[in-house]
UniProtKB/TrEMBL annotation:
<keyword id="KW-0411">Iron-sulfur</keyword>
<keyword id="KW-1133">Transmembrane helix</keyword>
<dbReference type="InterPro" id="IPR017900">
    <property type="entry name" value="4Fe4S_Fe_S_CS"/>
</dbReference>
<dbReference type="InterPro" id="IPR017896">
    <property type="entry name" value="4Fe4S_Fe-S-bd"/>
</dbReference>
<feature type="domain" description="4Fe-4S ferredoxin-type">
    <location>
        <begin position="66"/>
        <end position="95"/>
    </location>
</feature>
<dbReference type="GO" id="GO:0046872">
    <property type="term" value="F:metal ion binding"/>
</dbReference>
<keyword id="KW-0408">Iron</keyword>
<protein>
    <recommendedName>
        <fullName>4Fe-4S ferredoxin-type domain-containing protein</fullName>
    </recommendedName>
</protein>
<feature type="transmembrane region" description="Helical">
    <location>
        <begin position="285"/>
        <end position="304"/>
    </location>
</feature>
<dbReference type="Pfam" id="PF13247">
    <property type="entry name" value="Fer4_11"/>
</dbReference>
<keyword id="KW-0479">Metal-binding</keyword>
<keyword id="KW-0004">4Fe-4S</keyword>
<keyword id="KW-0472">Membrane</keyword>
<feature type="transmembrane region" description="Helical">
    <location>
        <begin position="224"/>
        <end position="243"/>
    </location>
</feature>
<feature type="transmembrane region" description="Helical">
    <location>
        <begin position="198"/>
        <end position="218"/>
    </location>
</feature>
<feature type="transmembrane region" description="Helical">
    <location>
        <begin position="264"/>
        <end position="279"/>
    </location>
</feature>
<dbReference type="InterPro" id="IPR050954">
    <property type="entry name" value="ET_IronSulfur_Cluster-Binding"/>
</dbReference>
Length: 429
């Protein structure tokens, strides 16, 4: 851990925020299990996802060194770069409410010195220089290679591309069945307790867009004041997720590369144009608003492209696009469309739970039962006439969508080297 200490001393980082980390395959520290470590910080990738996807344009590349530099004064603390980076390089600092990361010691390099981590390593496990990197340089157990061209060469293990074996005849035998329970749990970057505001915000986006579409086609009334109140609440919900609220205007600076920028821009444009539609009662303006609304639904789903889902599926029953269409079908009273969407969502949901059962992944059975009930119970109310029955039916569907969207976050996570290492078998069968 000398490299970690050297980095921390050089850059004056907080004790709980290390820019460099030593990843360990044997987190149990057990002598009879395979042992290897690799030290990682920012790999200053050629196609850096942190820089490409940051909505606030808080990252730039240093022309002389190729280092990806993070600018604290431009960061809004949305944490999106921490999702995008598979190497866990950007770190969110709870004290400053912004992200920070390795700067490649550009000041030291410009003076002809080596980076602090390289200088501090007592065994020569780290080195610094110029070299043409190939795909073969990136094949190491636990290292994530998703084609973003990280600027790092990883020297293979003694037995190339395999975990090293350690023979210890005196070691205490380990129960293979209990290995997983022994392992320390890696902290999840995506969890419901952190993302509950996003659950409500994404459902608010779906609700507002479906409301506007129903109003545009004459199925529902929409007044300016109720629409404005819900819109302000939606904006307030998303603002709770960012560290620097006074810099929220920077959200839309990266429309070219960031789906998060596109989401915020299209949703903001949708709110403004819909307000104009209500005031002027102009249908053409309404169609422009609906176009922005549809694009905002697509953008919301695309924002989460970096997440790794436990089921490994492409489609999720809690996708905002599907929810928006379902809400519109309910508000516009299209029974056939409602039925088709409920069958689609129900199939996706039940299919996902079957995958969990096969993989041995636990889930809340009672909550899943309530969610399935919320899909099919509304069919009973559709046989009844009246505004009350329609309202009850919509509230049941909305409750189900809250559960499904909440499960989307609890069933997703971000790829990191630590989690990739934890998935490797400790003992070969």
């Amino acid at each position: 851990m000398a490299c970690v200490a050297g980095c921390s001393i050089e850059n004056g980082t907080d004790l709980e925020v290390n820019w460099r980390e030593v990843n360990c395959h044997n987190n149990l520290k057990h002598p009879s299990l395979p042992v290897f470590h690799f030290s990682l910080a920012c790999n200053h990738c050629e196609d850096a996802p942190c820089m490409k996807n940051c909505p606030a344009l808080a990252y730039t590349r240093d022309e002389k060194t190729g280092a990806i530099i993070h600018h604290a004064e431009a960061c809004i603390g949305c944490k999106y770069c921490t999702w995008a980076c598979p190497y866990d390089a950007p770190k969110f600092n709870e004290n400053t409410k912004i992200v920070e990361k390795c700067n490649f010691c550009v000041d030291r390099i410009s003076e002809g010195k080596r980076p602090a981590c390289v200088e501090a390593c007592p065994v020569g496990a780290l080195e610094f220089g110029q070299k043409e990197i190939t795909e073969e340089d990136l094949i190491t157990p636990g290292f994530v290679n998703i084609g973003i061209k990280p600027s790092i060469q990883l020297i293979p293990l003694r037995e190339e591309h395999t975990t090293p074996a350690i023979e210890n005849l005196d070691a205490v035998e380990i129960s293979i069945e209990k290995l997983e329970s022994y392992l320390p749990k890696a902290e999840s970057k995506v969890s419901l307790d952190k993302e509950w505001t996003l659950v409500l915000f994404t459902l608010a986006v779906a609700g507002l867009v479906s409301w506007q579409a129903s109003f545009l086609f004459g199925f529902l009334e929409m007044k300016l004041m109720p629409f404005a109140i819900v819109s302000v609440l939606a904006i307030a919900l998303t603002s709770l997720h960012i560290g620097k609220k006074l810099r929220m205007w920077r959200f839309i600076l990266n429309l070219k590369g960031s789906w998060l920028s596109r989401e915020i821009f299209s949703f903001s444009a949708f709110l403004g144009v819909t307000g104009l539609q209500i005031i002027t009662d102009n249908q053409m303006i309404g169609f422009v608003a609906m176009a922005f609304g549809i694009f905002s639904l697509i953008s919301v789903d695309r924002v989460y492209k970096f997440l790794k889902r436990k089921d490994g599926l492409v489609l999720h029953s809690g996708m905002v696009s599907l929810t928006g269409i379902l809400f519109f079908a309910c508000l516009a009273d299209f029974p056939i469309l409602i039925g088709l969407l409920i069958l689609l969502k129900g199939s996706l949901y039940i299919g996902r739970k079957i995958i969990f059962l096969k993989k041995g992944i636990g889930y809340f059975l009672l909550l899943s039962g309530i969610r399935i009930l919320c899909l099919f119970l509304p069919f009973f109310f559709y046989n009844l006439s009246g505004e009350l029955a329609a309202t009850i039916s919509f509230l049941i569907i909305f409750t189900g969508e809250i559960i499904d969207r909440a499960e989307f976050y609890s069933e997703s996570d971000v790829i990191t080297p630590e989690k990739e290492l934890n998935e490797l078998p400790l003992i070969k069968p």
